[in-house]
Amino acid sequence: MIPIAGQPILTAAEMRAAEDAVIATGVSVETLMDRAGTAIAHAVRRLSGSNAILILCGPGNNGGDGYVAARVLAGMGATVRVAALSEPKTDAAKAARAGWHGPVETLADAKPAPILIDALFGTGLTRALDARTAATKTSSPADAGAQLSTECTTSGSAWAPASAGEHPVVERLHCLATAANLTIAIDLPSGLATDTGQALSTPPTFDLTLTLGAPKPAHLLQPAARYCGQIRLIDIGVPTTSQAEVLKAPTLPRPGPDSHKYTRGMVAIIAGTMSGAADLAALAAMRAGAGYVTLLSDTAGPPHALVRTPFSPHALANDRIGALVIGPGLGRDDAAKARLDAALTAGHPLIIDGDALRLIAPDRIKALEVPVILTPHAGEFDALFGKSQADKITRARDAAVRAGAVVVFKGADTVIAAPDGRVRIAQGASDWLSTAGTGDVLAGAIGAMLASGLEPLEAASAGVWLHSDAARRLGPAFIADDLADALRSARAAL
């Protein structure tokens, strides 16, 4: 099992193409399935101990992986049962089913086990489960659904369907998951859309997802990601490349004997009507490692290492400024617009955040001749680029092209996109980041990274990683001031 940080992210079609390329060299689908199932079995065996295992197999190749895993686990001496939704439909899955010599229960009849493995659907699902995805034991799809629903009711599960129309297969999966001590999904929990992160049906929240070959967008995009639990990669011998990658810990420059405050990077932050937001951004830039931070504001106060100076065109004319942050607490009045205009013409690399994102258009950003990083949350993104039903990766990529800038599309599933198509997606961040001022802290951290000399995509990625790691270190119920201080520990751990 391999951690997914830094791994390429593939859509369902890209993963199929990667597998097809291997198959074209003479490797059979059955061989790939055997690799996947065997690797799954070894991972499950390490985690299951002497506990009994129930593997739920669907009709496709995800189910085929489950049959192989069951065979290998049984060969290791594990207590394994298999329950099937229906007979296999693909040739490879049929061959895998033939290799399993134990009994196959129907999903309706399956009793719980301490270890539950979901190999029902995995990746490739494009619509919600319907009445046709039912056990073959019954005489009609409608009867099958009724039987599954009854079995769920009698299982004693406390789970309540998300809606009255929740499909009985999903109900059954929930019931079996509730009774298990450890739940593992193969490739993806059943009911999730691989490429968009939509929850087409509402699966249980799994403890672990074993992704085959490469992480998929749904492992990182919400709401799907919340159901995946821990995610680990299973290597099946398929080379993968992609412009999209899972965010990883950055490699940051360290000061040496010849370093001084300006070589470490100077960050300037323009304050506005809510000075506390700019203060947070300034503190974050300092704690993230900037050598010199100046806050263009009329306010006073600690820390003493922060240089405060009134805003003026002269203050912006300093050619040592390596990154200029504007937007946190800026306001949207005429004075704010004037400060934004001055920032855009100052000739410094820019981080544009908060209110400034509502005072500017993509075309104006694209016309700038300096590196630019935009840090919108969902509301600011919609205001700047318009609403869309497209997935978050597509929206971030399109926005980066339109603005000619790196876009940090913030949220529980932060997507960082560059105009050349490169994308970094952060693994799930702390839910406690949902508090005022944390976005200002992120803007300051990214400012420090950009001023240090990192190129824009790497600077944005490093800032997001530090921000997330600082939140993880703090645990619950922190405030933005705590988060800014914790950036020092996050930076020191690298």
Report on the architecture of this protein.
Strands 9-18-17-16-15-14-13-10-11-12 form a 10-stranded mixed sheet, sandwiched between helices. An 8-stranded mixed sheet has the order 1-8-7-6-5-2-3-4, sandwiched between helices. The longest helix has 20 residues, at 29-48. The protein has 494 residues and is α/β, with parallel strands linked by helices. Helix content is 37%, strand content 15%. The chain folds into 2 domains: 2-245, Rossmann fold; 266-492, Ribokinase (UDP-N-acetylmuramoyl-L-alanine:D-glutamate ligase). The two termini are 23 Å apart.
TL;DR?
By secondary structure, the chain is α/β, with parallel strands linked by helices.
Tally of contiguous helical segments? 15
Question: How much helix is in the residues?
Answer: 25-40%
Question: Strand order within the widest sheet?
Answer: 9-18-17-16-15-14-13-10-11-12
Main beta sheet, described? Answer: 10 strands, mixed
Strand content: 5-15%
Count up the domains: 2
Here the CATH topology of the largest domain equals Rossmann fold
Features:
Rossmann fold; 15% strand; 37% helix; ten-stranded mixed sheet; alpha/beta; 2 domains; 494 residues; eight-stranded mixed sheet; single chain; UDP-N-acetylmuramoyl-L-alanine:D-glutamate ligase
Set out the fold topology.
Blueprint: E1 2-3, H1 12-23, H2 29-48, E2 53-57, H3 61-75, E3 80-84, H4 91-99, E4 104-106, E5 115-119, H5 141-154, H6 168-179, E6 182-186, E7 208-212, E8 230-234, E9 244-246, E10 266-270, H7 275-287, E11 292-296, E12 307-309, H8 313-316, E13 321-326, H9 334-344, E14 350-352, H10 362-366, E15 372-374, H11 378-385, H12 392-403, E16 406-409, E17 415-417, E18 423-425, H13 438-451, H14 456-474, H15 480-492
Parallel strand pairs: 2-3, 2-5, 3-4, 5-6, 6-7, 7-8, 9-18, 10-11, 10-13, 11-12, 13-14, 14-15, 15-16
Antiparallel strand pairs: 1-8, 16-17, 17-18
Helix pairs in contact: 2-3, 2-4, 3-4, 5-6, 7-13, 7-15, 13-14, 13-15, 14-15
